Prior knowledge:
The complex is a heterodimer. By secondary structure, chain A is mainly beta.
Amino acid sequence: AQTVTxxxxxxxxxxxxxxxxxxxxxxxxxxxxxxxxxxxxxxxMILVIRQEAYxxxxxxxxxxxxxxxxxxxxxxxxxxxxxxxxxxxxFCAFMKTNAGNMLTFGGGTRLMVKP
Amino acid sequence: KAGVTQTPRYLIKTRGxxxxxxxxxxxxxxxxxxxxxxxxxxxxxxFEYFSETQRNKGNFPGRFSGRQFSNSRSEMNVSTLELGxxxxxxxxxxxxxxxxxxxxxPGTRLTVT
Lengths: 115, 113
């Protein structure tokens, strides 16, 4: 079974600054995907970024980038130029390859962006 | 293209009753997954349906069941409701299984009294 751990229950950052959210996971699988999801106060879960484990290059989506360390089983999310709209719960999630759409989520990090 | 819709959005039930929640995936999506979100347990996978077949099931008691229809719409049923079943139930749809993005619905907030 896989486990995903987010050690920072809450974080805050000033608008326009950079913040990094941590995520570690435990698995015996070699092929898998990792995701960061955002859940704003409206509750609609949105995919922020995904990383295929077989890719060494870290994924980037505009202001969002990850630091994927496969050996350390670490998958952190960096948000650059933070905006007020980034205020949300952020969930790190794991999915095995070729095993269907079953996500294992971490406990989440509540991020507050302050003006 | 319309997003994932879930009905009802809010529901209040009494212990011992049963409830059925509905999820309509994005048009063309064939995979539907269900998750339970609670403050104590976080987000937990319930089950996944693909082409009317349950492909994965999470660690939940048999009171939780689901099904998928030929049009990919899915329902989940919880029988003999318990207070601990109070949660936000999220549905997600995907084009196919695999790494394709899962699109989440707004959820159904179930309160059991």
